[in-house]
Prior knowledge:
The structure holds 2 protein chains of 2 kinds.
Chain A: E1 3-9, E2 18-24, H1 33-46, E3 69-70, E4 73-74, E5 96-100, E6 109-111, E7 114-115, H2 118-127, H3 147-157, H4 164-168, H5 175-186, H6 195-208, H7 219-223, H8 231-246
Parallel strand pairs in A: 1-5
Antiparallel strand pairs in A: 1-2, 3-4, 3-5, 6-7
Helix pairs in contact in A: 2-5, 2-6, 3-5, 5-6, 5-8, 6-8
Chain B: H1 16-22, H2 24-49, H3 56-68, H4 78-108, H5 123-126, H6 128-147, H7 163-171, H8 174-201, H9 210-237
Bound molecules: protoporphyrin IX containing FE and FE2/S2 (inorganic) cluster.
Amino acid sequence: MNLTLKIWRQQNAKASGAFVTYQVQGVTPDMSFLEMLDLLNENLQAKAEPPVAFEHDCREGICGACGFLINGVAHGGRRGTTVCQLSMRFFKDGDSVTLEPWRARAFPVLRDLAVDRSPFDRIIQAGGFITAPTGGAPEANNILVPKDSAETAFDAAACIGCGACVAACPNAAAMLFTAAKVTHLNSLPQGQPQRDRRTLSMVAAMTNEIFGSCTNHGECEAVCPKKIPIEFIGKMNRDLIHATLHHRGD
Amino acid sequence: MTESAETQQHPVAGNRFVAIWTSVIGKKVVMAVTGAVLILFVIAHMVGNLKIFSGQEEINAYSRFLREVGWPELGYGQLLWLVRIVLLVCAVLHITAAVQLTRMNWRALPVGYENRKDVETTWGAVTMRWGGLLLAVFIVFHLLHFTGGLVGFQSGQFEHLMVYQNVVAGFSVLPISLFYIVAMGALCLHLDHGIWSMFQTLGWVTVQNTKSIRTFSRLVAIIIFVGFISVPISVLAGWLR
Ligand code: HEM
Ligand code: FES
């Protein structure tokens, strides 16, 4: 099939960008969306034009590297699917497809469809860890984890940090990401000693990176390739209220 | 992309109430709590209004009751003023937090998308800001109208404590009735999102109960809407005269 692609092209973080239209021919339904872009880039390179920059790594939906808006929806709008998992069989010959990078003050465009997501790393650095003595691995059953806590933690830990939640949010908020990371460790017994401090620090880091705040529209949940539920945001809110009122400082 | 030192958030600020107000989530908590107080008031207000269907005597007596309640521990109208002050404080906090959060959110998204589609959101959610503003305008008008009798009445028509007569005269003016109905539509939308949002902000929504809370939110919003508009509609229809 043949497609018309309207892609955001931007030289670097300082340059101003614009949409450029390309035609790709010979796309087959068994290609992934990124393979279709590879095809476009091969054509561009053959003509000595700069290829379209986009991030990718695992190409199987587990690393969180890929992501941009396809026709106005982050990751293309198929529930629980990253761009790399998106199959070209969902497109028809002659379709016109718009590709736009994540937009948020905290995520400046580095080049074309690639944005700087290091604010997420700094949110993790603020509290997305537990402190444990190093040494030999402890006996696995020393700390018993209730089944429902394990399930909640696991659902939250499924977050791959792709940034689609920020991209889809009308306020460019990072609440779903932060909530997933907070919920992951706050649900486990190993996370309890630092629970209050973790919640306060990660929320403060999130605010300092100039993300917006939540208005409960639910757009983040709708585009999340890992289907992280917005109820985790409620859980983080509750942990934050508790931490603010009870934290003793250390 | 961090800001200068004085606007930096510190994980643990000194005073806990200051800490709540300085946190983005804390401001939402303030909105949720003040919103809850306002909703409870709105429900009580609506139920009070329905007394008009029991007749003149009933509603006018209710108006006097609101001022006399608490006697002899409280003087005439003291409880009413206490409630008014609490409501005013709630409204001011609610609006201040809304404005501050909205400005922060605009700052976080300086470059809009050429094309971003909403896939999940509701009418209620997207009209919170403009609908809220309409409610603020409505509240001011409403106080000048039925509390003060300063607008919407011919001179000498409005009489303090004569609620029945004032309401019938006030709603006989078609544009005023329509404005009330539109404003109650805005309130309905605001609460459809707001009540659910309040539970979410306070962390009471879980994956299991989220559907029921959304339904509850919509139900309360619709009941409030129908309850309030029944009065201007009944006046326009000539059922109350
Ligand atoms: C007077 C002007 C008002 C303005 C400008 C305003 C604005 C807002 C805004 C911007 C939000 C947050 C929107 C969101 O979460 O998406 C909100 C939430 C809310 N509003 Fe209002 N509002 C007003 C009046 C009212 C009134 C009269 C009530 C009660 C009857 C009310 C009840 C609520 C509730 C319960 C919430 C949810 C709070 C939360 O998210 O936790 N608001 N309002
Ligand atoms: S490339 Fe790893 S998730 Fe898409």
